[in-house]
Every structure is written in C-alpha cells, then in structure tokens.
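Notes continue from the previous slide.

Worked example: a multi-chain complex. Inputs as given:
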Amino acid sequence: MTLLLEADHLYRHYGKRCAVNDVSFTLSRGEVLGFLGPNGAGKTTTLQMLCGLLAPDTGTIKINGIDLLSHPKLAKQSLGYLPDTPPLYKDLTVQEFLRYCGQLHGMAKPQIARAITQAQDRCGLQEATHRLIGQLSKGFQQRLGIAQAILHNPDVIILDEPTVGLDPLQIREIRALIRELGQGHGVILSTHILSEVQESCTHVQIIHQGQLILRENVAGLNQQLEAGSLEVTTRLAADLSVLAAIPGVTRIKPLTDLRLQIHYRTSDNPKQKITETIMAKGWGLQELTPIKKSMEDIFIGLTQDDAP
Amino acid sequence: MISTIAIREFKALFLSPVAWSLLAVLQFILAYLFLKQVETFMVLQPKLAAIPNSPGLTDIVVPPLFGNAAIILLLAVPLLTMRLIAEERRNKTLPLLLSAPLTNAEIILGKFLGCLGLLVIVIGLVTAMPLSLLLGGELDFGKLSANVLALLMLVSALTATGLYLSCITQHPVVAGIGSFGLSLVLWLLDTGSQMRDHRNEWLEYLSLLRHFQNLQSGLINSVDVVYFLVFISIFILLSIRSLDKLRWQK
C-alpha cells in the first residue's frame, strides 16, 4: 500500500474560532476515506487545506510524498478536487470546459481527447457533450464537477459532498463510481450522511468541532454504532428521572410533554425495560417508534458514552 | 500555462456581448472624433501651407485622436477588468484555478494578458483610422508609432490597476468603481499642481497623463517607458500577493 496523502497536526483558526484543531491522518492507495461530521464541523476547511486553497496555521501536508506548502505546483499535479460548489463556467459547453481543465493540468492534446471521453463515460455525461453548462440541471452540473476532478487521472481525489443535489438513482451511480475510483486511487469524500459512508467508503473519519474523534474502517464503524434512539408517546406525562435510571438509557430529550426521545446503548437493549416501566407506572404507552440511526446518535455514542 | 488562461479569458470576452459592444461603441465614438479632426485639417490646410515648418496631417489628426481614445479607455478598461478575479470568486470558480498545478503568478499574468488582448484589438482599430489617410496623403510613421506605444502603455497600466482592484473584492461592480476612481486620480494628479505658481514636481511625476503626453509628443524618453513598466509591475505584484493572501483569510 502506497501512502498517497499525509496530513500532520493541522490547525486552522478563523479569527478566534478554531475551525480545525490538531487533525492528523493518512490516505493510502485503494482507500476511500469518508469524512463525516455535522455542518460546520471543519470538513470543508480541512479539505480546502489539503488542496492548497487555505494555508494551515501550523502542520504539514504531503501529497505523494511532496510537501504541498513548499512545492505547491508539483504536489497539486496529483490532486483532483471537487469543491462544495462545482467550479463551472456557465458560458462554456461541457466539452470546452473539460478541455480547459485538461490544459490547466498540463495535459497534451491527444491525451486530453481520450481523458474527456473516459471522464464523460464514467460520469454519464455523453449526451451532454455539446450543451452549455449554464443550461444543465443541478445533477448534471454535479456530475461534471466530478468529471473535472478525475479528468487528469490524479492519485488523490478529494470530493466535497459529491452527492448533494442528485436524485436517488444518480446517487447510486456516483457511489458506485466512487467505489470504482477507490480501487486505483486514494479518495477522500466529505458528507454528513451516515449511510453514504457505509455504502461507498472503506474507512471513516469523524470530525466534530474541528477535532477528529474517530478513525476506523467501516466494519469498525458499524461496531461503534451501538447507540440507538426511540420515540415514545404516552397518555400521561412520564417521570423522566425514573426512565433515565433504566440501565442503558443515555439521554432523554422531551419533545413535548407527552413525547420523549430516548437515546440508548444497543448493547444493553433497554427497550423492553422502558416498555415495562411505562406500563407499570400507568403512564399509558401510546406509541413507541425506533428511529433510524443518525449522526446525532453516533456523536452521542462517541462523545457522551461515559455520561449517565 | 499562462497562455491557456489568457486564451480562455480572451475567448470569454467574446462569448458574451461584452467585447462586441465595447468595440462597437468605442469605434463609433472614435470614428466621429477622427472625422472631425480630418475636417479641421481640411479647413486649416490652405493657411498651413503658407507657414514654413507648420504642423502636418499627422500632428493635427493623430495626437487628439489618441488622446481622446485614452480618456474613453480610462472609462472602458475598468468595465473589462472588474470581473477578472472578482467574478471567479463570486461564482466560486476560483478553486478550479487554485487547486490546479498553477502558480498564482501564472493565473494573474494569464488574466492580465487575456484582457490586454482585447485592448490591443481596440488600439489596432484606432490605428487603422489614421492609416486610412494613406489613401490620399502621407503620414509621419515615427509619430504614429509613438502614439501607439503611448496608448499601449497606458492601457496596460489601466489593466494592471483594474486587475488588482478585482483581486481585493468579491463584487465586480465595486472593483469597477474602485479601479475607475484610482485610475482617474492617477490621471489627474498633475492638474492640481498646475494651478499653483510653483509646481509640485512629485505629483506631476506620478501622473499617468504627464507620461502619456510625453510619449505622445513623439519623444520616446526611457523615463516615461520605465515609469509605465514599473507602474504595471507594481500592480501585477500586488495582484499576485492578494491572491496569495486569500489562503490566509480569517
């Protein structure tokens, strides 16, 4: 496994706010690294630093062994980047735009023609070749953004929220494409959708308030996902302290007087206990719905595991 | 790499109506002014013939035409330069250039040359007007080329100024207003100094107009040429620096 990207002790402040706080990680060939975090966690800032758009306050970044900060031009040759807004010139056609991108990366003419055809095939853009970018739908524009990032066959591909604005079918295609790209390259993608990581990534990294709080492969992540939550509706107001005392319950969030959201650890599985308690106390159980695992559950699982 | 960006920038001007409308309007105004100068010459010609060492056709037609072109371009260049970087930042297309293996100097020089390309066409069209007089008269080519050089230098300086202003704001219109204001101040610096009895040499020296007129007179002094080259370099370097500074934004 070759090491494609090394980020070492990165810090970045915006004014007094610390957006990225001591982030270190590596990416090898064949890995698809999912950068997971809620909005504003520092995902985009980290990715922008990796691409040389932002300078880190301290820390080093090496791409293919070349220091990005001291040799930016050389290091950027092995980099393909899709920002959170696809950088497209609306007055060009798809083909003109891709040709320009190829030229910017110093590709030779015959090489560009081949690369354009390949990138268009991979991203499903064949029928849009001669259309103006300004007239393309959001989904096509997003796909063109990805095509632009993989055009010059870079070793490291960085995609900032690649599936935003796509319909479910396109999302499936793009996820398949990302898995395919991951075989020959190193891919980093950022997202705030958990299932995206589970479907297309080999490794996952969770960032929260600028700090990395988890670095795992996807199998490890699934084990970490031992936090679940329930929504409970009762006829009479329940006593929160009694419910909170049930082993395995990590947190209770009252939604209204009669509706509660209960977070629990799946290893202790307190569902039955909760039901029994409500019945026994005579609060009148009306509804009990398991909620699909969300980012929030993971964060609670990871950050508040020790809390009662 | 520089040429890639320059060609893209040049083509982009012609993909929108910007370049076409600018060329049409400039050509219309300047053609009118040109014809007026030619008429002036026709009226004066009998009198001039009597005076020994009198100003010729070139003296009467060319400097006023190029002088007027300079003033109109002072207005027009900021309209062209305002979008150069500001619009890329606004449309969020700048990351494409910044994440590509390019240095900031290449990006700035590419943008500068692309925009200058259109202005060279403008100068070419302006020059074609006096050249048409060759059909029935003679021209002083030395003086004509001095005027072409003066206008080229001036236009490059204005482009560099506009490019810098476009780097420091995200709003194309603000960049346009800013670069128009800055160019005008630099243009008019010496008018204030002329009003007093003792002239302020420093202000006079900094004025774009002064150096432009020196070159226009047909006297190509290296001081004036160096002034323009230094002026252009300063603003190009400032532009490169401000693009660098984007990476450090707080």
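Summary box: Chain A touches chain B at residues 13-15, 48, 51-55, 72-74, 76-77, 79, 81, 83, 85, 87-92, 100-101, 103-106, 148 (CB under 8 Å). The mean pLDDT of chain A is 85.
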